[in-house]
Specification:
13 strands; three-stranded mixed β-sheet; binds beta-D-fucopyranose; alpha/beta
C-alpha cells in the first residue's frame, strides 16, 4: 500500500476566502469586511464581498469535490455569519447554511473537517478589545459550543485555530492582515495568551457539547528548517532552530508548546510579560487533543554557523519558487512532520500545503498547470518518506480546492485545483485536479 489505508486525501478552503455573501441572511461584519475597505490594504482594492459565491454555489462545488474523489474537505465557519455580534443571539440562517453544506458533503461521501476560526473575527468583538480582552476566550468557547450543539451529530473532525501566528502577528504586529494593527510587544503577548486560552476552552466546549467523540486538532503554521547537509551538526542546528523562540514571536514553540506540552518555552523572554496567573491557564490550554495539524508550504535551509548557532543559508540564485516567490522545498514535508511528531507525539495532519501559479484558461479551454503537479509529486514523495520513517501522518489537505481571495494579495494569486473565473463564476478543473483525482483513486501511487 502506497499510503496508509485510511489516509485522508483532502483539500481546503476558508469561509472569507470563498463564501462571498458578506452581508447576506443576517451575517454580521468581520474584521476582514472592515480591513478590505481601508485604502491600500489589499491588491487593487479587491474584497471578499463576492469571492467564489460559494455560499450560493456550494452544491456545484461539492459535486466537483466528489469528481476529485476527495475523502475530506477542510472548511471553516464564519463566526459572524452564525453569531452576527460574535456573542448574543445566533443567526439561524447562517447555521442552516453550514447544516446544508455538511449534509451535501456527507451525501457525497466527503468527510467535513471543520476549522472553527480562519481569521474572520466578529467586528463587534474587535470593538470590545478583540483578543486583547481576556473574555475573548469565553466568547470563543461559547461560539464553539453553539457549533458543537448544531453540527456534532454529523461532524467528527475539528480544528480550533488556523495559523494563530498569522492572525495575531500579521494582523496585529505588522498590519499586513486584518484588523491591521501595530500593537506593542506586551499587547501581542497578551493577545497570544488569550488565543491559546481560547483554544483550550474551545476544546473543552467541543468535548462537553459534542454528540459523539470528536477528532480534535489545531492548525498552526509549521515553520520548518531543512538541514543544509547530512552532517549531524547541521541536522542538530535545524532542529534547534525549529525549537527556538523568536523575538518577533514568529516561531513554532511559543504556539505549540503550551497546547501540547502545557508550558511556555523556558527561554522565552516574553514570559515576564504574560498576565499574572498565567500558570493556571496553562492547564486549560493543555487539553488533550487528538492530532497535530500544521500548514507547511516551505522550509528554510539551516546549518551550524561558525559560532555554533543555527544559521540560515540563502537559496542560490535562480532557486525554484512559486508565483508568490515562496521557495519550492519538498523536503519540508519530511522534516516538518518528523519534527512535530517527535516533539509532540501526536499523529500529524498536513492541514495546508500548495502553491500559487499564474494559471489561465488556455485556447483549448483547459487549465494547464504542470508546475502544480510537479510540486505536489515532489512534496508528497517527501511526505511518504516521513511515513516510511515511522511518522504517523493521517491526512493531507491541499490548499486550495479552488482559486479564491488570497487575503492582501486579492484574486491575483491562484492556489486552486479548480480554476475560478471571477467574472462569470465558471469553474474549470485544472490539469492538477484531474491528476489529483487519479492520485486519490490509487491512494498515492501516481505520485510515487
Ligand atoms: C495560509 C492561509 C490560507 C491561505 C494560504 C495560501 O497562510 O492559512 O488561508 O491564504 O496561506
Amino acid at each position: 500500500m502506497a499510503f496508509p489505508k485510511d489516509f485522508v486525501w483532502g483539500a481546503a478552503a476558508a469561509s472569507y476566502q470563498i463564501e462571498g455573501a458578506f452581508d447576506a441572511d443576517g451575517k454580521g461584519a468581520s474584521v476582514w469586511d472592515m480591513f478590505v475597505r481601508k485604502q491600500g490594504t489589499v491588491f487593487r482594492g479587491h474584497t471578499g464581498d463576492v469571492a467564489c459565491e460559494h455560499y450560493h454555489r456550494y452544491p456545484e462545488d461539492v459535486a466537483l469535490m466528489k469528481q476529485l474523489g476527495l475523502k475530506g474537505y477542510r472548511l471553516s465557519v464564519s463566526w459572524p455569519r452564525v453569531l452576527p455580534g460574535g456573542i448574543g443571539p445566533a443567526n439561524d440562517k447562517g447555521l442552516a447554511y453550514y447544516d446544508r453544506l455538511v449534509d451535501t458533503l456527507l451525501a457525497a461521501d466527503i468527510a467535513p473537517w471543520v476549522t472553527l476560526f480562519h481569521w474572520d473575527f466578529p467586528l463587534e468583538l474587535y470593538r470590545r478589545g478583540g483578543w486583547l480582552n481576556r473574555d475573548s476566550a469565553d466568547w470563543f468557547a461559547d461560539y464553539t459550543a453553539l457549533l458543537a450543539e448544531r453540527l456534532s451529530d454529523r461532524v467528527v473532525n475539528w480544528m480550533t485555530f488556523n495559523e494563530p501566528q498569522c492572525f495575531v502577528l500579521l494582523g496585529q504586529a505588522t498590519a499586513l492582515q486584518a484588523p491591521g494593527d501595530k500593537l506593542r510587544d506586551d499587547e501581542l503577548v497578551l493577545a497570544q495568551h488569550n488565543v491559546l486560552l481560547a483554544h483550550g476552552k474551545a476544546v473543552q466546549a467541543l468535548r462537553a457539547h459534542s454528540k459523539q467523540p470528536g477528532n480534535i486538532g489545531y492548525a498552526p503554521v509549521g515553520i520548518v528548517s531543512i538541514p543544509a547537509t547530512e552532517d549531524p551538526k547541521d541536522l542538530a542546528a535545524a532542529e534547534r532552530r525549529m525549537s527556538s523562540v523568536s523575538a518577533s514571536h514568529w516561531d513554532n514553540v511559543s504556539w505549540f508548546d503550551p497546547v501540547f506540552l502545557g508550558k511556555y518555552p523556558e527561554d522565552a523572554a516574553f514570559i515576564s510579560k504574560l498576565p499574572r496567573g498565567y500558570e493556571e491557564d496553562l492547564t486549560i490550554i493543555h487539553q488533550p487533543i487528538d492530532f497535530c495539524g500544521t500548514n507547511i508550504y516551505f522550509g528554510t535551509s539551516v546549518r551550524e554557523g561558525r559560532d555554533g548557532e543555527p544559521e540560515q543559508v540563502q537559496e542560490p540564485a535562480g532557486f525554484p519558487s512559486t508565483a508568490l516567490n515562496w521557495p519550492v522545498t519538498p523536503s519540508a514535508l519530511f522534516h516538518g512532520p518528523r519534527y512535530f511528531h517527535a516533539r509532540y507525539g501526536k499523529p500529524i495532519v498536513i492541514t495546508e500545503n500548495g502553491l500559487s501559479c499564474r494559471d489561465w484558461v488556455a485556447l483549448d479551454g483547459a487549465v494547464h498547470d504542470p508546475t502544480r503537479i510537479d510540486f505536489m509529486t515532489r512534496y508528497l514523495r517527501e511526505l511518504h518518506r516521513a511515513i516510511q520513517a515511522g511518522v504517523p501522518v493521517s491526512g493531507y489537505f491541499h490548499w486550495s480546492v479552488m482559486d479564491n481571495f488570497e487575503w492582501s494579495e486579492g484574486y491575483k494569486e491562484r492556489f486552486g485545483l479548480i480554476y475560478v473565473d471571477y467574472q462569470t463564476q465558471k469553474r474549470t478543473l485544472k490539469d492538477s485536479a484531474h491528476w489529483y483525482a487519479k492520485l486519490i483513486a490509487s491512494n498515492g501511487q501516481v505520485a510515487l
